[in-house]
Amino acid sequence: MAQDVEILNELYKVILSRRGTDPDKSYTAKLFSRGRGKIAQKFGEESVETIVAALSEGRDELAAESADMLYHLLVLWADCGLEPGKVWAELERRLGTSGIDEKKSRAKKS
After folding, report:
1. Which residues cross the membrane (predicted)?
2. What would the mean pLDDT of 9-32 be, rounded to a whole number?
3. Which one has a higher pLDDT value, 103 or 48?
4. How far apart are alpha carbons 12 and 56 in whole angstroms?
5. At 11, phi and psi to the nearest 5?
6. Residues 6+ apart with CB under 8 A from 68
């Protein structure tokens, strides 16, 4: 699994390297140039396409849509200045905790 996470970490680095480059030559640069709202919109669209694939398409389509969704999520994180390691640490913190208990703990913080 560490190798799988490393793929996402490497993709994040590539995404960061595209910030400020020519939007006519890089889709990632184009997303950055259009702003956080557009990045979030694209993430939302890819999330919906992932759901559709899960409900009515095969595993190959689900894998492709999931990859698109993860890419757009990483672009959103990069735009927000959120390093993937912070997310991995949060997931690790939750490891072994009941989802029900974890959700209750968030409700108390609100």
Report:
1. none
2. 97
3. 48
4. 30
5. -60, -40
6. 46, 49, 50
